[in-house]
Amino acid sequence: MTATRDPLDQPFPDAPERRRLVVLGSTGSIGTQTLEVAAWQGYEVVGLAAGRRSDQLVAQAWRWRPRLVACDAEVVGEVEGQLPPGTRLAVGPAGVEEVAALEADTVVAAVPGFRGLAPVRAALRAGRHVALANKEAMVCAGPLMWAEATAHGGRLTPVDSEHAALYQALLGEPPEAIERLVLTASGGPFRREPADLSAVTPAQALAHPTWRMGPKVTIDSATLFNKGLEVLEAAFLFRLALARIEVVVHPQSLVHGLVRFRDGSVKAQVGPHDMRLPIQYAITAPARPPVPLEPLPLVGEWTFEAPDTDRFPALALAYAAGEAGGDAPVRLNAADEVAVEAFLAGRLRFDGIPRVLEAVLETADRAPVAWGTLGAIDGEARATAHAAVARLGSPT
Ligand code: MG
Asked: For residue 39, how far is the Cα from the chain centroid?
């Protein structure tokens, strides 16, 4: 028998006959893999939202024939007039929100960063099921997002592989039996070497050992800040105290998440390095339709070690922001978006990233976050981060 309520205490709806999907961030890593899942499962795609990759968006529109697509104002000229008959164009952030609120069974929310918040909110306000790939929605506005979902009948399921793993391991388990959630981290490309991280280049940091992902999350994996964001995301998503969220480094990235129970048992979810599986599960849970993939080989060495927070202070800073509460996670997130962009542009050294985070975190005042103040807090933190980047100077 299958559980009727999910681990986030939401009812499972009946599976639709032919699923209608909206994909926000359709030309990014998660977006394109979502469309691969849609092709596997024969879903209908009713809406697509992208940024500036106009050629790719137009090609997706011809392949999927959605009712509505959205793109950045900058590339309207390259999209307008290129769309198939029956596909309308919406523009800019308001356009993305219009796509997010389309009538659909599932909205895959994969617009990265702080700017991904508004479309998640729009989808929840329209009462949609959101398969959430954007981490920042929970990190910056977790309680606000839950309030929107509750008020408007929206539903959330996690796409992030660790949270998808925890969701699966928690399914059917009584909440009072849960002791701790454990997220695994690959450790990134610099887990042990080089000893001195100050001179690593963007190209080295972008060479992730196990996962294929966008540039922001790949750099965040190299600093371990990605795991910090995920710890905060897990605390807000599963509504557990931060002290009950643990991180363990597992370089093989086959165990994605574990749950420790009060009786001493540990339940883990295991899978290949392929985001299409958590994407699909976030869409279809609790159903598990078959996929055209080779079975995961179980023979090999699987290792686990404690994270080194002296080497990767960004992880500890995320815990500190979560403990501080209020606006601290919003500010830390903004600081990291600025710092990673500066690192990729050659304006900041790799070891400058946590220093920018620390400088911005010091300015957090723990003020409670509301929809009306989020944007201003984010903007203020970005300004502080830019100043810290300028102060720390360029790599050369
Ligand atoms: Mg992850």
From this structure: 22
Q: In angstroms, what is the span from residue 161 Cα to ligand 1's centroid?
A: 5
pTM over 0.85: yes
User: How many whole angstroms from 210 Cα to the centroid of ligand 1?
Assistant: 12
| Cα 117 to ligand 1 centre (Å) | 18
Q: How confident is the model at residue 141 (pLDDT cuts 50, 70, 90)?
A: very high
The answer to whether residue 132 is domain-embedded is yes
pLDDT at 395 over 70: no
Q: What is the number of structural domains in the chain?
A: 1
Q: Which strand (E) or helix (H) includes residue 108?
A: strand 106-109
Task: Check which CATH number belongs to the domain holding 29 and give it.
Answer: 3.40.50.720
Q: Is residue 261 part of a domain?
A: no
Give dist(CA 390, CA 388) in Å, integer.
5
Question: Is 396 part of a structural domain of the chain?
Answer: no
Return d(Cα 360, Cα 239) in angstroms, integer.
26
CA of 88 to the centre of ligand 1 (A): 33
List, for residues 16-32, the tens digit of each pLDDT value.
999 999 999 999 999 99
Residue 42 domain-assigned (yes or no): yes
Q: Calculate how far, in angstroms, residue 82's C-alpha sits from the geometric centre of ligand 1.
A: 35
